[in-house]
Each structure stands twice: as structure tokens, then as C-alpha cells.
Amino acid sequence: MSDNVPQFGIAEYPSAPGTDTCMSCRQPAVGSYYRVNGALACARCKEQLEAQLPKDSHAAFVRGLMFGVGGAILGLILYSVFGIVTGIEIGYISLAVGYIVGKAMRMGSRGNGGRRYQLAAVILTYAAVSMSAIPIAISQYANGKMAPPQAQVAKPRTPDPQPAKPQTNLGAALAGLAVLGLASPLLELQDPFHGMIGLVILLVGIRIAWRLTASPAIDILGPFVATNPAAPAAAP
Ligand SMILES: [Zn+2]
Question: Residue 68 phi/psi, 5° resolution?
Fold first, then answer.
């Protein structure tokens, strides 16, 4: 669908001065030219490129966010299943989670990116990786390997004067679990070696998500006056 997008990824400069050739259509630039990411472009190709650039909008951001949440859930499942099945404690899957979240957001926003996309991608990647500690801990508890995560929280000594509503208890338990999950990358620093490695891999994964959701870097300069000595004769 986007096969006709002019390619300006690699900046090539004409070898000989005076030959202003468009890096996209390879025709000599006549009259005026532009520089797109440093590469020479004729006016027609520059206009074509501008028309095909993704237009950022609220709708694009919301769609990107929805895809990002989907990617984060996928990443959480992937991370949890990998951790439970292999028992490997170092979170290599953080890299894949960052990649999935970034790619999903890019797909949802149809190529848009920028600071707000990057911030959302960072939060989603962190949330997916850290919250996967919950299913992994539950699985370990079910296998009798360790105490449930709730047991690590100091319990209040004073008994409740009256029994709280069950919904409040469930809600509080889930909220506590979520907080524990979000704090898990830091809690794992109790084991400094594994904790640090996990944190570094998580930061690399976040960086992957950050870069994948960056603004599409198109830098258009111009117009400049073309210096082709022998412009081709104008078409009739
Ligand atoms: Zn051109």
C-alpha cells in the first residue's frame, strides 16, 4: 500500500557538483529542490511525501493506546508463561515485551509516534513486566515453592472492630497485589545480583519501546535553487 512512498532513509549526495538529482525519482531537480533528512528531493517527490506522512490526531493516539494495551497484555502473558514454564528468574522477556508494545502502538496509530506515545509505551512496558510477577508468584505458591506475596506484607496487629464487606476486602487485596506487582522489579533488588540484571534488562526493553514509538523523523528543508547547468527542455 505504501510502496510508492519516496525513500529518503539514506542520505546520498551527488558526487559531482551541479548535478542536483532527486534521491527518490532520480530525475534532475529543475528550478528548486528540497532536502529531506539531508537527501535531495524534487518538489514533486517532496509534496508526495508530505501527503503520505501519518497525520497525528486524538483518534490515532487513542487507537495506538488501545493496541499498546493489547500488546502489554500479550507481553504480560508471554512473560508469565515463560517464567512459570522455564523457572528462569532473569527477565529476558522484558526485551520482547518492549518490542511488542512499541510495535503494537505503531500499528494502532498507523505510523504515528512522538513523546506522548513514548510515555505510554514506557508505562505499558513497565506495567506488563512488573505485573507478571503476580501470576509467577501465584504459580510458585501453588507449587509450594514460596509464601504467597501477601505474606510478605506486614499485617496490622489490631483486629477489625467489625467485619468489613467482602467486596472491600477483595478490592483491597487486588489493589495490594497490584502495588506489589508494580513494585516487584524494585523488590527483587533484595537479591542484588538478579535484581540488578532484571532491572537493566527491563530498562533496555523500555528503551526498545521508547524508540519504536518515536516521532517519524522527517526533516524537510527548502526550497533551494537548483544549480543544474543544463536543465532538460520543458515538456510541450
Ligand atoms: Zn523526485
Answer: -65, -40
Cα–Cα distance for residue pair 10/224, rounded to 1 Å:
20
Is 208 inside any structural domain? yes
Q: What percent of the chain has pLDDT over 90?
A: 44
**pTM exceeds 0.85, yes or no:** no
Residue 155 lies in a domain: no
Tens digits of residue pLDDT in 52-66: 888 889 999 999 999
Residue 156 lies in a domain: no
Distance from the alpha carbon of residue 29 to the mean position of ligand 1, in angstroms: 7
Whether residue 99 contacts residue 212, with contact meaning beta carbons closer than 8 Å, is answered with yes
**Which is nearest to 95 in space by CA: 210, 181, 176, 196?**
210
Domain total of the chain? 2
Does one domain contain both 40 and 144? no
**Ligand 1 centre distance from Cα of residue 110 (Å):** 25
Whole domain around residue 92: which residue ranges? 58-150+167-212
Overall size of the chain counted in residues? 236
Residue 32 Cα, ligand 1 centroid: separation in angstroms? 11
